[in-house]
Every structure is written in C-alpha cells, then in structure tokens.
Amino acid sequence: MSHANRTTRDASKKPTLRLRVSPTAESILRSGHPWLFAGSVREQNREGDCGELAIVFDRNDCFLAVGLYDPDSPLRLRVLHAGKPTAIDAAWWRARLESTLARRRPLFDATTTGFRWINGESDGWPGLVLDRYDTALVLKIYTAAWLPRLAEILALILEALAPERVVLRLSRNIQEQALSKFQRRDGEMLHGTAPDGAVIFLENSVRFEAEVLRGQKTGFFLDQRENRWRVGELARGREVLNAFSFSGGFSLYAARGGATATTDLDISTHALESAKRNFALNQADANTARCRHETVQADTFEWLRGTRREFGLIVLDPPSLAKRETERDGAIAAYGRLATDGIARLLPGGVLLAASCSAHVTADEFFAAVRQVAQRSKRPFTELTTTGHAPDHAATFLEAQYLKAIYLRF
Could you tell me if 271 and 395 lie in one domain? Predict the structure, then answer.
C-alpha cells in the first residue's frame, strides 16, 4: 500500500510527493523532531499542495518521515510519523486519536471538565490543539495544512467524544488564507450551535467561564491549572496580588484556599470584568464568599513600581515577553525587574510565584534571573519549588517547552 492517504481528497493521479533534505535535517528528523523548514529541502519531485502528505527520503533512498506539507509556510513539513514506513489511512488516524485520548482519560475526573485533549506536536498532531470546555470542544489549528482535512478530523472527533458543539479557532497567521482558499473563519461552528455567551466549565470544582468563540488561546489559560492549585494551598490567611490576572484564576483558587483578600491587576477592562463574573460563579463556596475581591486596571510594571501596598502572596504571570529570539535579552531583563518590584511588595514570610510563558527564554535563564534579583534584595528567602508543563500540556521537544514557574518564600 502506498504511504499516501487514499482518501477522495488525495485520490488524484499525481505521484506521491517526495522530498530530499540536507544531511543536518536528516539527523534532526531521525532524532524525532517534528519540523522540517523550507531551507532544508534540497529537492522534490513536484510542487506540493497544502495539506497533502509528503514523504522524506534519506540519502540512501530509504523512508525517513511522512508529514503534512505546506508550500506557503517556512515550516514546510510537519511530521506525522518517522521511522519505518506506514500507511497514513483512516485506520491510522483513528488509532492516533485513540492513543492521544487514552493518555488524558486517567488525568481528570468529574470535578475537572476543562483540559487539553490534544497538544499539537507533542501528541503527534503537529499544529493542532483540541481543548475541552464541558460539553464544548475547541479545535485550534496553527498551520493551513490541516484545513483540507478538517472534515476528516472532525468526523473522528465526533465519533470518539460526541461533544455538543465544536468551535474552530485559527492562528492569526493563517486566518486570511483560511478564508480566501478554504472559506473557514476563526470562531465558526464546526458542529452544533454557537453558545449564548461564555461556556462554563469546572477546574478542580472551581467554576470558570471560557470565551470559546473569541477569547485568547482557546478561551482560557488551561496550562496554569497545577500552579493555580499550588497557590490555593499557599494562600490561607494571606492577602494576594494576582498581577497580569486575566480572568482571575489564581485569585479564585487563593480565595477558595482561605485568602483574606485578593487583588486582580490587569490592563484589560474586559479581563477584569471576566474575573468579577468568575467570582460571582463561585459564591456558593464559603471561603470564596468571605474573601474580599478587588480589581485594579493598570499597567502591572508601572503599578508595582508606584504602589506602597504589601501582600502575603504575589503572582507574576505575564504574557509572553519574547515572541521572537531577538526579544530574548529584553525579556530576561523585564522578568528581573518584575521580580525585583514584586519582592519589594512582599510582607515578611510572603511568597512570590514568578512564571514565564516565553519559549525563547529557557527555564534555566528564567530561574536564574529570578534567583539573582532575590539574592540582590538582601532578604533571606527559601526556594519552595519550580514547575513546568501540566500533564495535559506535555512538551516533547525543545521549541514546545515554554511554561515555567518558580516559588520563593521571603
């Protein structure tokens, strides 16, 4: 059987798309890396179509890898399988999905209905994410190579998970192409009817809203679940500052954990209004109802530098400060300034949680920056722990490793 997928879509008379790559790229693919860049392609037998399967052969004309081809992207091939030749057919796709779902099923019970089912390359679905929010699923794609396959993938998802609705979200860099070539829009319904407002889901029994049609990421920051839980365990009896608060997730866990007061600090009015609604959703919890909740709209860097208020626990969880490699040094310096100003606002015995979601800043670089300013503060401190990716957001290659956090007690 041919390596090519024998669906109607691929049933043209074109020969299988074959690629040969540089020796360096051969080694990288053989090591299991899921990306092949355009500059590494040395020859191919014909022009390729977006989303078709392309096979990479090594210098000895042996099968090396097969993946989704994108002629319009610098990231020319996203690898689906490497090693021994295999048929990428309907049975293969079904088995791939089932193995991915099987890794998630033991992780969560009925108290958590918001989590990631598929985490892109690290689950063998390069450039594709599937998140659950109660009975709604959000399918987000980061490469146009998935667009010709949406119907096929959607059918598998509906068969395996039977959701009430499925929302399509598109990375900004492919939205124009998705509309002009495939008539697909960000936020469109692939299955079911559009929700009337936000979707409500549970995370460790805490109720949250997710803006699945237009919100950041897929509607919520699911990747910080474990760190929110830790904050809840550390918060009892403390006043908590949640900087870059978004919709108040850390504050809600702190309130449930017994914090006396929480302050959500964000520059976005929209985010702070969402935080207020999330607190309202959880008033049945006695600790949450007792906790004083305040919102402050301000730039976190400026507010921290100017305030004289002190807190027992401070969360610093900014958006990515280095979206490209050239911004790396500036981001490291900014993390240091944030930690310096956060430490200055901590009461004796207070805890600082500093987090980074910048993939261009390594965990070692980030932790070193925070430890350095902690030592420079001349205050005695204890490093409680460092954390990385949540189990449903596992990262299996270097470029996927973005999330890290460090906890210090002063």
Answer: yes
Could you tell me if 249 and 208 are in contact, meaning their C-beta atoms sit under 8 angstroms apart?
A: yes
- How many helices (H) and strands (E) would you count in the chain? 11, 20
- For the cut 70, the answer to whether the pLDDT of residue 67 exceeds it is yes
Tell me the per-residue pLDDT of 170-216, one tens digit each, with 9 for 90 and over: 999 999 999 999 999 999 999 999 999 999 999 999 999 999 999 99
Contacts of 290 (CB under 8 A, 6+ apart): none
H-helix or E-strand containing 365? helix 363-376
Per-residue pLDDT of 359-375, as tens digits, reads 999 999 999 999 999 99
Q: What is the pLDDT of residues 88-116, one digit of tens each?
A: 999 999 999 999 999 999 999 999 999 99
- Band the pLDDT of 5: cuts 50, 70, 90: very low
The H or E element containing residue 225 is: helix 225-234
Let me know: does 167 contact 190? Beta carbons within 8 Å: yes
Q: Is residue 211 part of a domain?
A: no
Written in H, E and C, the secondary structure of 152-206 is HHHHHHHHHHCCCEEEEEECHHHHHHHHHHHCCCCCCEEECCCCCCCEEEEECCE
What value, to the nearest 5°, has the Cα angle with vertex 226 and ends 341 and 251? 50
Residue 12's pLDDT is what?
54
Strands 239-243 and 311-316: parallel
Cβ partners under 8 Å of residue 388, min gap 6? 363, 395, 401, 403, 404, 405
Domain-located, residue 159: yes
Q: Which domain holds residue 113?
A: 90-199
| Residue 208 near residue 219, CB atoms below 8 Å | no
Please check whether residues 138 and 41 belong to one and the same domain.
no
Q: Cβ distance 314 to 344 under 8 Å?
A: no
